[in-house]
Amino acid sequence: MTTTHQSPAPTTAPDASGSQLMKERTPRKAPALRADRPGVRVAAWASVIVCGGFGLLPVYWLLATSLTPRDQVFSYPPRLFPSEVSFEAYASLFSNSQLFTYMQNSIIVSVVTAVLSVIVSAYMGYSFSKFRYTGRRALMYFVLASQMFPQALLLVTLYTVFSAYGLLNTYTALVLSFTTFTLPLCVWMLKGFFDTIPNELIEAALMDGASRLRIIHSIVLPLSAPGMVAAGLFAFVRGWNDFIFALTLAGPDKQTLPPGLVNTYVGEAATAWPELMAASLVVSLPVALAFILLQRFLVSGMTAGAVKG
Amino acid sequence: MTAIVAYPLLTALVTAFFKQSLVVPGRKFVGFDNIVDVLQGNFFQLFQQTMIFTLGTTILPFAIGFALALALNTRIRGANLMRGLMLIPWLVPGVVVSFLWMWIFNGNYGVMNALLAPLGVEPQAWLAQPGTAMWAVIIAKTWQSFPWIMVMLLAGLQTVPRELHEAAEMDGAGTVRRFFAITVPQLKGIIGLVLLLEFIWNFQHFDIIYVLTGGGPAGSTQTFATSVYETAFRGYDLGHAGALGLLWLILLMALVVVYVRFSEKGEER
Known about the structure:
The complex is a heterodimer. Chain A is an all-alpha fold.
C-alpha cells in the first residue's frame, strides 16, 4: 500500500503535538506523513517497543531455551544468553519414537481434514453463493454461528456418539470432529471466492448446454483454485493446532502432537524445558510455513468481509 | 453440517435433564435436579472467574493491538517487518503458548521472576498461587490474541479516508481530538466486531487454561469450559456437565444479545 494518510498518535502515550500543529497549519502541497512530527513519532516508537517487546521477547526465550544445554536450564537466575549453543534438545527430540508417532498422526489427520473440508465446503459454498432458495441466509448464518458453540460441550456428545459406534481412538473420529470447526470458516471463505466469479460466465456456459455439475467442475472450481488451496491450508492449520478433541477422543497411539506433547512433558517433576521448547518450535513450523504461503490471501480475506460490513 | 454440530449440541443439552454417566450406559430422567445442583454448587464462582478471564483477555489484547496498529500505521521505519513478526504469537499452536508461558512463569527457574527481581518483587510460583494464577493465564492468552486484533484494526485504519484527517487538521484539530472524532467513529464497526468475537471466543476458551493450570490452584482458574470438561471427562458425570453447559450457553447468548442491542443503540445516536 502506498497510502500516506495520517494517523493519530497511539492513546497509550501522551503527546504534545496538538500545539505544534497550530504553527504549521499552512496547507501542504505534498502529503506529509504524520510520523514526521516528533511527538507522534516518539509515541509510535514507544508503543512499538513496549508492545513489540511483549510480543517478541517470549519468542526469543523459546528459541534461547531450546538451544540451552540441559544442565544450564536449572539455574537461577536464568541466563538470558546461553553461554554455549547446544542442539542436544533437538537431537533427543528426534530420537523419541513416541513423538514420531504423534507427528505422523498429526500429519495424517490434518491433511485428511483439510481435503475433506475443502471438498464439502466447495459444494456448500457454491450453493450459498450462486443459488437463491428459502432458508439460504438462515442456513448461512447458522453455519457461521456454529463456530460459537462451545467445543467442550460438543465434545460431550461427540464422545458418546463415537463411543457408541466404536470410533473412539480412530483417525475417523478425529477427522470428523476437526471438520466440525473447520467447515464453517472454509464454507465462508469459498463462498467469498465464488461470489467474485461473474454470473455471466455461468449463464454463458448454461447457454452452451453445460450441465450444472459440469459448470462446477470445469469452470467454477478451477477458477477458484487459489481459494481452495487457502481454505485447505487454513483447515490444515486448525486441525494441526487442535488440542481438546484429540486429547479426549484418541489414545496415545492415535493422538496428535499437541495433546501428545502435553502428555509427554507436562506434570513431570523436572520438566525437560529445552526439549519442550524445541518440540514447541518444531510443532509451530508447519503452521508458520502454511501462513507464509498464504499470508497475502489470509490477511486480505480475513479482513475484507469485516471492513465492508 | 447440521448433523455434525446441531445434533451433538442438542443431545448434550438434553443430558442436563438426565442422570447419566460417561462410562455406564443408560440414563434416568431427573428433571431440573442437575440444574439445581449446579446452581447451588460453585456456579457463581465459575461465572465470576469466567467473566474475569473473558474481560481480561478481551480488553488487554485490544489495548495492545490497537496501540500497535496505530503505531504501525504511521509508517515508521520497519513497520512491515514488525507487522509480520508480531503475528508469531498468533500463529503458534495454543499448547505451545501454554508451554512457553508455563516456563516463563515457572516458580523456580522462570525468567519472569528474574526480570521482576530488580523491581523488588519476591520470586513467585505464579501459576501455583490462587492470587496470581488467573492473571498469569490472562497474560498468556493476551499474548496469543493481540496480533489478530492488530491485523484487523490495521486493515480498518487503512480504510479511514485521509481527507477526513486533512480537513480536520485544517480546522485546527489536534492529534488526540482527531483520534476520538475521526479514527474511533470510522473504526466503530470493526472495533465492535473484534470485541464481540474476542468475547465469544474467550468465554469458551479451553486450551491455554487447561494446560497452564488445569483449572487450579484450588479451582481459582476454573471457567465454564474447563469445568464442563472436568465434570464430563474426569468426573464422568454427563448430567451435571450438560446442566452446566446449558446454563453456560444461555448466559453466552444473553450476553451477546445485550451486547448487540447495546451497540445498535450506539449506532442510532
